[in-house]
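Sorry to interrupt, but I need a hand with the structure work. Leave the record below and I will have a look:
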Amino acid sequence: MTIGLMLTLAAFALVDSTSFGTLVIPLYLLLAGERSRVSGQLVYLGTIAVFYFLVGVALMLGLSAVMDGLGEALHSEVAYGVQLALGVGLFALSFRFDPKYRAKRGLPERRFEPRVGGPRTMVLLGLTAGAVEVATMVPYLAAVGVMTTSGLPAAQWLPLLAGYVLVMITPPLALMGLRAVTGARLESRLERLRDWLARHSASMVSWAIGIIGFLLARDAAVQLFFAPE
Protein backbone atom coordinates (compact mmCIF):
# COMPACT_ATOMS: atom_id res chain seq x y z
CA MET A 1 0.00 0.00 0.00
CA THR A 2 1.48 3.33 -1.10
CA ILE A 3 0.79 6.96 -0.27
CA GLY A 4 -0.13 7.52 -3.91
CA LEU A 5 -2.77 4.79 -3.74
CA MET A 6 -4.27 6.25 -0.57
CA LEU A 7 -4.36 9.76 -2.06
CA THR A 8 -6.03 8.43 -5.20
CA LEU A 9 -8.69 6.64 -3.12
CA ALA A 10 -9.21 9.77 -1.02
CA ALA A 11 -9.75 11.78 -4.22
CA PHE A 12 -12.31 9.24 -5.43
CA ALA A 13 -14.09 9.36 -2.04
CA LEU A 14 -14.24 13.16 -2.07
CA VAL A 15 -15.76 13.10 -5.55
CA ASP A 16 -18.25 10.47 -4.34
CA SER A 17 -19.15 12.67 -1.36
CA THR A 18 -20.71 15.21 -3.75
CA SER A 19 -23.19 12.80 -5.32
CA PHE A 20 -26.95 13.19 -5.04
CA GLY A 21 -27.28 10.42 -2.47
CA THR A 22 -24.36 11.46 -0.27
CA LEU A 23 -24.75 15.25 -0.22
CA VAL A 24 -27.93 16.58 -1.84
CA ILE A 25 -30.35 14.22 -0.07
CA PRO A 26 -28.64 14.72 3.33
CA LEU A 27 -28.95 18.49 2.82
CA TYR A 28 -32.68 18.16 2.14
CA LEU A 29 -33.05 15.98 5.24
CA LEU A 30 -31.01 18.43 7.31
CA LEU A 31 -33.23 21.36 6.37
CA ALA A 32 -36.49 19.41 6.45
CA GLY A 33 -36.05 17.95 9.94
CA GLU A 34 -35.93 19.58 13.35
CA ARG A 35 -32.50 20.05 14.95
CA SER A 36 -33.41 17.58 17.68
CA ARG A 37 -34.24 14.87 15.12
CA VAL A 38 -30.75 14.08 13.91
CA SER A 39 -31.27 10.35 14.46
CA GLY A 40 -33.12 9.97 11.17
CA GLN A 41 -30.35 11.71 9.27
CA LEU A 42 -27.74 9.52 10.96
CA VAL A 43 -29.75 6.40 10.11
CA TYR A 44 -29.83 7.49 6.46
CA LEU A 45 -26.08 8.17 6.33
CA GLY A 46 -25.31 4.92 8.15
CA THR A 47 -27.51 2.98 5.73
CA ILE A 48 -25.92 4.38 2.61
CA ALA A 49 -22.41 3.93 4.09
CA VAL A 50 -23.08 0.27 4.94
CA PHE A 51 -24.66 -0.24 1.51
CA TYR A 52 -21.59 1.15 -0.25
CA PHE A 53 -19.27 -0.89 1.96
CA LEU A 54 -21.09 -4.18 1.26
CA VAL A 55 -21.22 -3.45 -2.46
CA GLY A 56 -17.49 -2.78 -2.34
CA VAL A 57 -16.78 -6.05 -0.52
CA ALA A 58 -18.85 -7.97 -3.07
CA LEU A 59 -17.05 -6.26 -5.94
CA MET A 60 -13.63 -6.82 -4.42
CA LEU A 61 -14.30 -10.51 -3.90
CA GLY A 62 -15.72 -10.89 -7.39
CA LEU A 63 -12.95 -8.90 -9.04
CA SER A 64 -10.33 -10.76 -7.01
CA ALA A 65 -11.67 -14.04 -8.37
CA VAL A 66 -11.42 -12.63 -11.90
CA MET A 67 -7.90 -11.43 -11.18
CA ASP A 68 -6.86 -14.88 -10.00
CA GLY A 69 -8.29 -16.40 -13.16
CA LEU A 70 -6.73 -13.94 -15.58
CA GLY A 71 -3.43 -13.53 -13.77
CA GLU A 72 -0.85 -11.48 -15.60
CA ALA A 73 -3.24 -10.69 -18.45
CA LEU A 74 -4.67 -7.76 -16.46
CA HIS A 75 -1.19 -6.28 -16.09
CA SER A 76 -0.37 -6.50 -19.78
CA GLU A 77 -0.04 -3.65 -22.23
CA VAL A 78 -3.35 -4.65 -23.79
CA ALA A 79 -5.14 -4.41 -20.42
CA TYR A 80 -3.65 -1.01 -19.68
CA GLY A 81 -4.52 0.07 -23.20
CA VAL A 82 -8.16 -0.85 -22.51
CA GLN A 83 -8.01 1.11 -19.25
CA LEU A 84 -6.55 4.10 -21.07
CA ALA A 85 -9.32 3.94 -23.69
CA LEU A 86 -11.94 3.65 -20.92
CA GLY A 87 -10.53 6.68 -19.12
CA VAL A 88 -10.46 8.77 -22.29
CA GLY A 89 -13.98 7.57 -23.12
CA LEU A 90 -15.30 8.58 -19.70
CA PHE A 91 -13.63 11.96 -19.98
CA ALA A 92 -15.29 12.51 -23.36
CA LEU A 93 -18.63 11.21 -22.01
CA SER A 94 -18.56 13.77 -19.20
CA PHE A 95 -19.23 16.56 -21.70
CA ARG A 96 -22.57 14.96 -22.61
CA PHE A 97 -23.83 15.55 -19.06
CA ASP A 98 -23.20 19.26 -19.31
CA PRO A 99 -26.35 21.28 -18.49
CA LYS A 100 -26.02 23.28 -21.70
CA TYR A 101 -26.12 20.03 -23.67
CA ARG A 102 -29.28 18.98 -21.80
CA ALA A 103 -30.91 22.36 -22.28
CA LYS A 104 -30.35 22.28 -26.04
CA ARG A 105 -32.31 19.01 -26.18
CA GLY A 106 -35.13 20.23 -23.99
CA LEU A 107 -34.58 17.74 -21.19
CA PRO A 108 -36.65 18.65 -18.10
CA GLU A 109 -35.05 19.55 -14.80
CA ARG A 110 -35.77 16.98 -12.12
CA ARG A 111 -36.08 17.86 -8.44
CA PHE A 112 -36.31 15.46 -5.53
CA GLU A 113 -37.20 16.69 -2.06
CA PRO A 114 -37.15 13.90 0.55
CA ARG A 115 -38.51 14.36 4.07
CA VAL A 116 -37.28 13.07 7.41
CA GLY A 117 -39.25 10.04 8.64
CA GLY A 118 -38.89 7.16 11.06
CA PRO A 119 -35.97 4.70 11.08
CA ARG A 120 -37.65 2.38 8.56
CA THR A 121 -38.28 5.27 6.20
CA MET A 122 -34.69 6.44 6.48
CA VAL A 123 -33.30 2.94 5.91
CA LEU A 124 -35.55 2.52 2.88
CA LEU A 125 -34.50 5.93 1.55
CA GLY A 126 -30.82 5.05 2.03
CA LEU A 127 -31.21 1.70 0.29
CA THR A 128 -33.15 3.30 -2.55
CA ALA A 129 -30.57 6.04 -3.04
CA GLY A 130 -27.76 3.48 -2.96
CA ALA A 131 -29.51 1.18 -5.42
CA VAL A 132 -30.24 4.03 -7.80
CA GLU A 133 -26.61 5.16 -7.68
CA VAL A 134 -25.14 1.68 -8.24
CA ALA A 135 -25.22 2.23 -11.98
CA THR A 136 -23.59 5.66 -11.67
CA MET A 137 -21.11 5.19 -8.79
CA VAL A 138 -18.22 5.67 -11.19
CA PRO A 139 -15.77 6.94 -8.52
CA TYR A 140 -16.44 3.94 -6.28
CA LEU A 141 -16.13 1.44 -9.11
CA ALA A 142 -12.87 3.10 -10.14
CA ALA A 143 -11.59 2.94 -6.54
CA VAL A 144 -12.45 -0.77 -6.31
CA GLY A 145 -10.70 -1.36 -9.62
CA VAL A 146 -7.57 0.45 -8.44
CA MET A 147 -7.47 -1.59 -5.21
CA THR A 148 -7.99 -4.81 -7.12
CA THR A 149 -5.25 -4.16 -9.67
CA SER A 150 -2.93 -3.22 -6.79
CA GLY A 151 -3.23 -6.78 -5.49
CA LEU A 152 -4.03 -5.76 -1.92
CA PRO A 153 -4.86 -8.51 0.60
CA ALA A 154 -8.19 -8.42 2.44
CA ALA A 155 -6.46 -7.17 5.60
CA GLN A 156 -5.58 -3.99 3.69
CA TRP A 157 -8.51 -3.38 1.37
CA LEU A 158 -11.19 -3.91 4.05
CA PRO A 159 -10.03 -0.94 6.17
CA LEU A 160 -9.49 1.06 2.98
CA LEU A 161 -13.12 0.45 1.99
CA ALA A 162 -14.27 1.44 5.47
CA GLY A 163 -12.15 4.58 5.33
CA TYR A 164 -13.53 5.36 1.86
CA VAL A 165 -17.16 5.34 2.98
CA LEU A 166 -16.28 7.37 6.09
CA VAL A 167 -14.64 10.06 3.96
CA MET A 168 -17.65 9.90 1.65
CA ILE A 169 -20.14 10.81 4.40
CA THR A 170 -17.89 13.30 6.19
CA PRO A 171 -19.26 16.45 4.43
CA PRO A 172 -22.91 15.90 5.52
CA LEU A 173 -21.75 14.97 9.03
CA ALA A 174 -19.73 18.19 9.16
CA LEU A 175 -22.76 20.20 8.02
CA MET A 176 -24.87 18.57 10.74
CA GLY A 177 -22.29 19.54 13.32
CA LEU A 178 -22.10 23.12 12.05
CA ARG A 179 -25.86 23.44 12.12
CA ALA A 180 -26.00 22.15 15.69
CA VAL A 181 -23.36 24.69 16.78
CA THR A 182 -24.49 27.75 14.83
CA GLY A 183 -28.26 27.23 14.97
CA ALA A 184 -30.39 29.44 12.73
CA ARG A 185 -27.39 31.49 11.60
CA LEU A 186 -26.40 28.74 9.16
CA GLU A 187 -29.94 28.01 7.94
CA SER A 188 -30.07 30.48 5.05
CA ARG A 189 -26.64 29.45 3.79
CA LEU A 190 -27.58 25.77 3.87
CA GLU A 191 -30.72 26.52 1.91
CA ARG A 192 -28.71 28.40 -0.70
CA LEU A 193 -26.24 25.50 -0.86
CA ARG A 194 -29.08 23.01 -1.29
CA ASP A 195 -30.64 25.07 -4.10
CA TRP A 196 -27.23 25.47 -5.76
CA LEU A 197 -26.59 21.71 -5.62
CA ALA A 198 -30.03 20.99 -7.06
CA ARG A 199 -29.43 23.40 -9.94
CA HIS A 200 -25.92 22.15 -10.66
CA SER A 201 -26.38 18.40 -10.12
CA ALA A 202 -25.86 17.72 -13.82
CA SER A 203 -22.61 19.69 -13.78
CA MET A 204 -21.45 17.73 -10.73
CA VAL A 205 -22.08 14.44 -12.53
CA SER A 206 -20.20 15.76 -15.54
CA TRP A 207 -17.22 16.80 -13.42
CA ALA A 208 -17.24 13.53 -11.48
CA ILE A 209 -17.14 11.40 -14.64
CA GLY A 210 -14.49 13.65 -16.16
CA ILE A 211 -12.24 13.47 -13.07
CA ILE A 212 -12.54 9.69 -12.84
CA GLY A 213 -11.82 9.33 -16.54
CA PHE A 214 -8.72 11.50 -16.17
CA LEU A 215 -7.47 9.49 -13.16
CA LEU A 216 -7.98 6.16 -14.93
CA ALA A 217 -6.29 7.41 -18.08
CA ARG A 218 -3.39 8.86 -16.09
CA ASP A 219 -2.83 5.59 -14.20
CA ALA A 220 -2.84 3.59 -17.44
CA ALA A 221 -0.54 6.08 -19.17
CA VAL A 222 1.95 5.85 -16.30
CA GLN A 223 1.98 2.06 -16.55
CA LEU A 224 2.29 2.10 -20.33
CA PHE A 225 4.80 4.87 -20.91
CA PHE A 226 6.62 5.67 -17.67
CA ALA A 227 6.80 2.44 -15.64
CA PRO A 228 10.29 0.93 -15.37
CA GLU A 229 10.94 -2.09 -17.57
In short: The mean pLDDT is 75. The chain has one domain: 3-226.
